[in-house]
Design brief:
Layout: H1 8-15, E1 16-17, E2 20-21, H2 29-42, H3 46-58
Antiparallel strand pairs: 1-2
Amino acid sequence: MDAGPVSVSWISDLCIQDGRVTVKQSWLSNNWLKDVRRTAEELDELDGWQMLVDSLVVAGNEGLAPYSR
């Protein structure tokens, strides 16, 4: 899957507002996050990726639980 020009920080800003997760999962978000993990690591954005995944799991996204710390 092509990650395209969308960055992890942009998705994080969309999903987390005022310190609260407002979107815990969308139709393709879990697959997209799994697919871009390696790219996030290569671009030194893995900390942001991990923070987003952990926040989504705490909010109830069970599909990303294996990727949460």
